Amino acid sequence: MSLILDCTLRDGGYYTNWEFEDDLVKEMVQCLNFSEVDYIELGYKSPLPGGRFRKCNDKFISNLLKDVTILGIQKLSKLAFMIDAKDFIEDNKVNKRLLLDVIKPKDKSPFTLCRIATNYETLDQSLEMLEIISELGYETALNLMKVAMLSKLEVGLALEKVGKSSVGMIYIADSLGSLHGKKLEYLIDLFRTSCDEWDKWLGFHPHNNLGLAFSNTIQAKSRGSFDIVDGTITGMGRGAGNLRIEQYLMFYDKPTTNLLNLIQKRFVPLMKKSKWGWSPSYMYSGTHEIHPSYPQELQTYHISDSEIQNKLEELSFSGGKEFYNQDEIKPLSEKSVSIVIPARYKSSRFPGKPIVDIDGTPMIIRVADIASQVVPKENIYIATEDERIAKVVDDYDYKVILTSDNCLTGTDRVCEASQEIDSDIIVNIQGDEPLLDPDDIQKVIDCKLKNMDSVVNCMSRFDSTEATNRNIPKVVSNFNNNLIYMSRSAIPGTKEGHSKLVHKQVCIYAFTKDELDKFYQFGLKHGKTQIEWSEDIEILRFLELGINVKMLETFGTTQAVDIPEDVDKVLEILNERKS
Q1: How confident is the model at residue 318, as a pLDDT?
Q2: What angle do CA 325, 330, 332 make, to 5 degrees?
């Protein structure tokens, strides 16, 4: 039997944002030790946002596992972590400072093995990183991803470079889940010969798109090919998932009673919730060498496997791209979308601002023109209480809905207007945002289609020196980008002062009519909610009503027009764009 590495938390973290309950992790480590697993990969070490097992902080892992009691085991599992090569590469160069910030010397860490995931294009930088990591005292391994897409020449060059390095293991990573038969045998023979020549271990990371992860592994093992094999509990991993580690262990008569009990108690419910595993969509992607991120993305629209296959057949690329292209994968939902732009004439700080001239066009029309790049013009409505605004809108052939003059908020005005609109999704953009990016509006629509049980709002990073500006609502969200709170105060705070990681609200929203109706009906009966009134931030009413708010980060340049002086700021930005 080859050595075996469990990577459940690392690969399964794509479904949980790398957050797992402490008790689950402790029990899992105990069970894998009893089952004689050689390495347990607990997650990534990454500078990117994510849960605790995307960071795998050394002290956190040591404290978490210090009270895990494993008795009667002659050989304990070694701990491993993975890094993603691209996270540490800037301008085609290794960011050594960042790498050493994330990875500390082995004598200060509970980990033994570091693995790096790399494409052929970042191989040189990856080998440079692994030399540094080796000097820190770690065992090292290189997972060469999407190897099925490489030419024989590219594979040969890669193996020669790895062979001359200090890397201890090289993995065949079946990223597309497409390897089987003669193609797999050819790669195994090529890698095995090189590993024997350079005294390296050969590893295998199988994906289960074709339902062959187990049989491929056993077939190769019968030829004495692999020194180490990856698996995950129940196959938990992106897309169709991986080799089921419990299946592999049972085949070789390893003790699995504790592990099987854990699966029934903790992993079966998690699997029902997150829905990893084989499906016809992943089968199709495996046979056509399409990266599983494509069908996985399409599944979020809750459409059938046959519809997903039809969409995959339309994709205009030769397979292997790692991430889906939003221009190629469009929502297949039949849900209709309309955009409502609230425009109030009686602004206390700038009366009549919706129709102020911005480089020859009334501001409200400039905003409507931006919206028309996303949805058809007939699906755009300006909601106003004023006939002067209505006349301007009518002159430019946009639809207008007259609302009452006593709406509590802009969202209440949108809700009034929505009662005359037959659409499943209502997108609210502000009439005083003449520099909105239409791509951001499209992202909000796409996000809403995937999160029909949440209101969608936007946020962007901004200069923390403005954190005390009470005109700017500041955002605090969790790892899943769900809104925790929004305030005009400087949040989140620290003992020394406000945080440097500051997000401000960007006023693009997406609602269902039901969500808007709950918001509006509460306002009719009770007025603003207590915190909404205190902060003067209307999105908080949804939180107080128990409606989740999904925050979507945007990166475009915005400049709201709140006061007359802001018009000059907008014109300055427009002139810069023209030059």
Answers
A1: 46
A2: 145
